[in-house]
Fold each of these.
Amino acid sequence: MSTKDRITGVLSPVVTPFKADLSPDPERFVRQCRWLLSQDVGLAVFGTNSEANSLSTDEKVDLLDRLVGAGVDARRMMPGTGCCALTDSVRLTAHAMKLGCGGALMLPPFYYKGVSDDGLFKNFAEVIERVGDRRLRIYLYHIPPVSQVPITVALIERLLKTYPGIVAGAKDSSGDWNNTKAYLDNFAKHGFDVFPGSETFLLQGMRGGGVGCISATANVNPGAIARLFATWNVGRAADADTQQERLNEIRGIFAKYPMIPALKAAIAHYGGDTSWATVRPPLVELTREQKAALATDLDSAGFTMPGLTG
Amino acid sequence: MSTKDRITGVLSPVVTPFKADLSPDPERFVRQCRWLLSQDVGLAVFGTNSEANSLSTDEKVDLLDRLVGAGVDARRMMPGTGCCALTDSVRLTAHAMKLGCGGALMLPPFYYKGVSDDGLFKNFAEVIERVGDRRLRIYLYHIPPVSQVPITVALIERLLKTYPGIVAGAKDSSGDWNNTKAYLDNFAKHGFDVFPGSETFLLQGMRGGGVGCISATANVNPGAIARLFATWNVGRAADADTQQERLNEIRGIFAKYPMIPALKAAIAHYGGDTSWATVRPPLVELTREQKAALATDLDSAGFTMPGLTG
């Protein structure tokens, strides 16, 4: 099965803007997605950093419709469609396919803990069978620090054997290079595309056969992350390690704060739109002091968000 | 604020029957709820044991409508309405109130881990404010082994102070008596009703000021559990400890198996309806061998499910 049409490169789990009443703001969402595309970064909307699980399925369907309706290229989208409820996962995944999305990033059902690979296989198999579309490209989402439900090598092996081509890859947000390496070593040659969940592993990942990254901080530092991907892929970029160090420096600043509120605070700051800082519970905004400290840290590091208009 | 109209006693997190295509089966659900009420057990539908988080919000709204439409008494219902998405929690809770449910059992949003009490307070406060119904009775659902997001004493204190009467109690499924005791000691005298999450703590709970229990095994052993509650409340039941021991014996048999599939297998066996064993992924049915062993264990212990018709 051809993997030429696959999404690769750097994707952003796009943060979701909320209005004062905590409803999603489609206009600012479209604007943000357009800005990310202008930086050569794809759209992993409805990820962990998107507060996707804090949105209802109706809200996600509506936001996706609004993006596509606004002319944003669905082929550059890899929406998160894995929910706790099979019926929600099927509905969202089918909708994403109908709109022509390049892929679907799927969390395992994450309420029950200690579930078996048999149960997880059944979950993904039911989604694939019910969606029933050979164009479907599923990316498995491994983020045990949050979901607490791992995507094991054994599960991937079984899924890849049963649904080659449809099971197209994984995002590895374990933060554990050994796990990323296990995915790469076992599956990268079998049409399975591995995206580390942070740009701190971008270069290491590409050197090991990875195809990019899907990273929180691609929301705020998209251009520089995409540049490392692009230049490395054209002649292995002599300055790749220097680029990687600079990416890590910026990432390190954000990592000093709760990540999602910090991403939104940075967009609010550099875009001149304070309402971007709004999050849905159970998250909380950075405090005024944290926002000021983050801005100072970023300014001191010479950080900018070129082209962002809020 | 009066607590006389409150739900007390034994409640069952009612297991949800599925058809072969994994859609919920309203007819068998109504029948099961009627049987539980006939055993003097209330209906904590949409709990952990109900596979509630494996159902979409639409499916839950529909099942609740079907129950009430069939004439099942909404005042005996405490549906689980706490979701990851604020909008889902508000919609379900408002719907439960509209139907006249006696209370709502609320999980905290459970995707993000390590969230602050500030964020959790905001979540529950938003639900309460948006539902905007003084008849609302919220029971906080503490089940850290599954949700991984605890309901702390400090959070309860803050909610109880801000929303007295509306914040009506908690289900404690920590399995940690010290936590149940902390809830009881701090709040039982302030109109806060504590339900241990297992009948193994029923007697101990009542002795400490608890008002009943909400327990998985109330799905299968409702009459005996309700009898301990009823007889203890009329003259402290001289044989209370003996009753408790017998409850523990039956619970112990179920605890040897994955709980939810085991509950469904027992209903399938004693109700003569094999399709009751169906679960949604990520759970898996007991194997044929496990089902046979469970039935043998239960039969040997003289266990029955009187009046169950499947």
Note: The radius of gyration of chain A is 18 Å.
Amino acid sequence: MSKNLTSRTEDYSKWYNELVVKADLAENSAVRGCMVIKPYGYAIWEKMQAELDRMFKETGHQNAYFPLFVPKSLFEAEEKNAEGFAKECAVVTHYRLQNDPDKEGKLRVDPEAKLEEELVVRPTSEAIIWNTYKGWIQSYRDLPILINQWANVVRWEMRTRLFLRTAEFLWQEGHTAHATESEALAEAELMNNVYAEFAEKFMAIPVIKGIKSESERFAGAVETFCIEALMQDGKALQAGTSHFLGQNFAKAFDVKFTNNEGKLDYVWATSWGVSTRLMGALIMTHSDDKGLVLPPNLAPFQVVIVPIYKNEEQLTAITDKAQGIISRLKELGISCKFDGRTTHRPGAKFAQHELQGVPLRIAIGPKDLENNTVELARRDTLSKEFVAMEDLVAKIKGLLKTIQDELFDKALTFRDSHITEVDDFETFKKVLETKTGFISAHWDGSAETEQKIKELTKATIRCIPMDAKEEAGTCVYSGKPSSRRVLFAKAY
Amino acid sequence: MSKNLTSRTEDYSKWYNELVVKADLAENSAVRGCMVIKPYGYAIWEKMQAELDRMFKETGHQNAYFPLFVPKSLFEAEEKNAEGFAKECAVVTHYRLQNDPDKEGKLRVDPEAKLEEELVVRPTSEAIIWNTYKGWIQSYRDLPILINQWANVVRWEMRTRLFLRTAEFLWQEGHTAHATESEALAEAELMNNVYAEFAEKFMAIPVIKGIKSESERFAGAVETFCIEALMQDGKALQAGTSHFLGQNFAKAFDVKFTNNEGKLDYVWATSWGVSTRLMGALIMTHSDDKGLVLPPNLAPFQVVIVPIYKNEEQLTAITDKAQGIISRLKELGISCKFDGRTTHRPGAKFAQHELQGVPLRIAIGPKDLENNTVELARRDTLSKEFVAMEDLVAKIKGLLKTIQDELFDKALTFRDSHITEVDDFETFKKVLETKTGFISAHWDGSAETEQKIKELTKATIRCIPMDAKEEAGTCVYSGKPSSRRVLFAKAY
């Protein structure tokens, strides 16, 4: 366990990369741009999955599974979607290997086994799913269809970073079909709200709900709702998106239904997704120079007990005590691990659990046995105190709630202090470089201005916030009239 | 909802294919050999996953995730494994599409975007995982590694059938690394026992635990443990396998560790998996000519309530009553759905729930409101009875247990009556064609005899049962000496 984690001020990007690897969350694999998610990282992802899955089911959705491959002819059917993803598609062209006649013990692609039609490894599943829905929908009685899929997808990105941008990533993608435009729009907004609630209540990450500008919209969508978070380095991160797809995919795949007036119409659609990218958001929102800081809701184990002993007898007595604590915590649904490894000293264990962000650490030594106390340490504040055994369980229960709340509050304070209203372009550029964070500014609504600002500053429009007030103003770049402010930021 | 399900005696294979589709479990997709798992089928798979995942974690395993793609050079490293899977590999050769200059609005593979090294879509993950483990293991202190992965895999099968054999399927694959041979062997057998327990207690499918003959072994394994089930048509189905891999993969990927005596040695390995094929086993073990029969443990909902009414007032009263039943069942952890659809008549609902195998059906009509009773129907026996409201919840709780047990007993009786001891080859062939099922016969242990028997009868050695007694005899085909009986059968 190395102590040499680069500090955030020294090099934020390096700090992130090192932390992901040293905290045993993930690592790069032998496959370009693809990561291995290690057990500790995957355990966090499983907790996210479980909560999201519960929320999806509570809002009436069911899970299903659609093929990994999309035949090229289906992939290209919805033109904008195809155009948006064509440049990052992994393509299967052959279905067999054979012994290489030139190289003993090596294999080569069998040239005889070429597919008649190439298969795209799904970068997203609208095409294969809407081609399937065509067979499921005849009448309004077949609607709505409210389906979610947990799956891997592949987007051949040129520059990748663990969790934030990988060629293969894990995600969920909801795909719903509706009889009316208003119902589909309401669904898209509902699921964006579900994502926001999940991010804030479960991940302790404050987010801004908004809609994307046209150029930042999902390829094939009519409207993209999103949640935007702010990382500690002042860069924004899109944490989830929910798309109102209009009738675009229904038209591309000819999915019509008889409505309740007996007339034929195209079906209305949404899709929405969050991915293992959320792991990156989690890490960059809460962690510090000593390592990961995990909100108790997402910690693989919420409490760890480290015994401090000089002989077997002491260890036995401490272990006994620890087992009692663990079973009482378990009754309250609190997960606690006893770190009884004899191969590591307490100091090394402390450092590891700090690095891995375990919310609470209990140390029990011989003195504690005598006094009937333990030492309880908080990972987020690094504060320590001695707690009497009889108060311990109640104390832990309260602290876990406190930590969850305070992590959110801290992130919210940071975020809110990094939204700056700006009305001229010189200040815009200065704030972006010095203060960083979101800039709330007027925009004339044109893609040209958006593009120009991006070229000049690397800032993009993160969203038009759902709660943006009507306010007459002039565009921060063009000086043209504008009716409300939007949020700009540099982004991951 | 069609009533025209082909009967099992008429055409078992057709019955199966129709049932999978009509019960809304799965359907074929636009991608050759790949299926869409529909929400009702996926809900059953989720129940299997949850229980297996619980069992894996209880036996000390953690989940992780490894890349979908395996670079060809890694894939070919373990020669037997590579040879075993080379003929069914989907291969990614390119990473980009572009507009087709010859066809307006169409895409083609960008010839400039050819990968330097082809990527195999994982047919199984030993290669990519052992290449990763190499970086994780230095000393015996790093062992054991006990990891499981839930994932999709692709094997380009020429003849596919929903759930039983599909080009893409969902599975879990455990991959463990150990310091000693005996520990790895014990792990492989332990996980085969976990599969057996899961199949019997949870799926109500009796299985025979055994080891595979050399020619039926997993490519790259030293020993393959398996569980074998018997379907209603007398054909066997391999329901799960657990492999002792020896040091084969450690040698292929050069994974050495310092043992507790300070000496370098290769690491010992296991891998084990079950897949969506279990859905096929489930369907073919319990279902009947009216449709699916589900063990209560796996039913997406265990009880359904159908209201029978002539007017709104009756429907309201029945709905009230139903809600009361549902909430009392929920307290006991029993899932119950109210089928209040106004678009379908009770008869159609009955047929659908029969087809979909809901274990218990409650019908409530106006007479029942008067008498304070309900009609309760069992899906497995198709028996019906009137039950007083005050007895209902206890009755349901008891019946769900009874159904789970009786389904297992029924399958066990069928299975046990279809294991036939045979001592000459004429009888062997006759039993195989007329009575079907497992044939317990002596075998001389040679691959030649095994192959010959397969050619002549299509029967393969399903396993050498773990509990096979030492018994002197002569091979049913060659007449050579044999020390114990093995199980032959035609198989899925």
Note: The longest strand of chain A covers residues 168-178.
